[in-house]
Amino acid sequence: MADQQPLQAQDKLAFLLVLVPYLIDHERVSVAEAARHFGVPEQRIRRAVELIAVSGVPGETMQYQHGDLFDIAWDDFEQNDMIVLTNLVAIDDSPRLSAREASALIAGLQYLSALPEAADRDAIRALMAKLSRGAGGAASNVAVGQDLHDAALSTIRRAVADGRGLAFEYAGPRTRGGTRRVDPLRVESIDADWYLRAWDLDRQALRTFRLDRMTNARVDDRPAEKTIGDVVIPDTLFQQSGGDVIVTVELDCSALPLVADYLADTADAEDADGRVRIRLAASNGFDGVVRLVAGLPGRAVVLDPPAARAAVRAFAEAALAAE
Predict the structure, then answer these.
(1) What's the short name of a Pfam family annotated to this entry (predicted)?
(2) Distance, CA of 282 to CA of 304 (rounded, Å)
(3) How far apart are the first and last CA of the chain?
């Protein structure tokens, strides 16, 4: 079996982080078996084991002593190609997760369990319970804010699990409302907003729908025509269509990650004042641009077209008049 391309430093670290627990769990395993398990050449396993054998945690003197390093049964390794760890380092006295760390992980697992493609929810719940018990302190009761969308999420999950289509009433920034018939593919979130990525049957294209604009979601009797394996889903939530207007916005470069999913193309280079210009694909109503600018007070300015500037100005004037 030919060796693969050399691993980068971060890849080597990631490989060691999964290899060490594997060796501990198996106690005695052959190089060939480990290579088959990880799908790598045997020589890569041997090099990794040799690296593990010179790894460890320095003692109180900050110098490595024999007991501060992992060790293996060298004769068995060199003569029989068998791996046996004979000295483990920082396993029994490794620190527990703090309450804050455990709470963050639990919140992430709660989010994961809400996704329709998350199949093994029993395993997720068991892991959440283990995190709560194993934390260094009592984990906070953390809930991911999705209460308003629970009914829609449950319906979407059922449609995906049964391989069925989905129908719902939808009023988006580009439509006045109507029934949409889709094949649900994925649910994602940005901050507090949840989105459905789905194949729109009427438009025969991938579309993104906000769950808070969906009503009366129901599972169709028809089988889904498209599944997540049939459609290439871009990393960004929104893609430009022929009816979009390109809006140029200037904002602080520190705010760029907050709008990455909305960019129509790449951002310009940062100027001397730490500002960048971006272009967004927007509908003629500019609702999305107005919400974006309102969510970045003092950090974003619409430059073009004039109609988009007027929409932002009208929103600001209405907000001031309501005070």
Answers:
(1) WYL
(2) 12
(3) 72
The series of mean pLDDT values per 10 residues for the chain, 323 residues long, is 48 72 83 89 86 63 56 85 77 54 63 58 66 52 51 85 91 65 85 80 84 88 89 69 78 79 70 85 74 82 90 87 74
pLDDT at position 107 is 61
Helix axis angle for 306-322 and 287-294, nearest 10°, is 60
CB contact at 8 A, 55 and 68: no
The DSSP code sequence of 63-79 is S--GGGB-EE-HHHHHH
Q: Are 113 and 120 in contact (CB under 8 A)?
A: no
**How many other CB atoms are found less than 10 A from the CB of residue 308?**
23
Nearest residue to 148 via CA among 189, 112, 109: 189
pLDDT the model gives residue 167: 94
114 neighbors 146 (Cβ within 8 angstroms): yes
3-class SS of residue 110: helix
CB 139 within 8 A of CB 102: yes
pTM, entire model? 0.41
Domain spans, the chain: 9-87, 99-134, 147-223, 245-322
CATH 3.40.830 fits 9-87, yes or no: no
CB atoms within 10 A of CB 105: 18
Residue at token pair 């009761």 = 141
Q: Are strands 193-200 and 205-210 parallel, antiparallel or unpaired?
A: antiparallel
Residue written as token pair 């022929």? 242
Distance CA 174, CA 185 (A): 21
The CATH label, of 1.10.10, 3.40.50, 3.30.70, 1.20.272, for the domain at 245-322 is 3.30.70
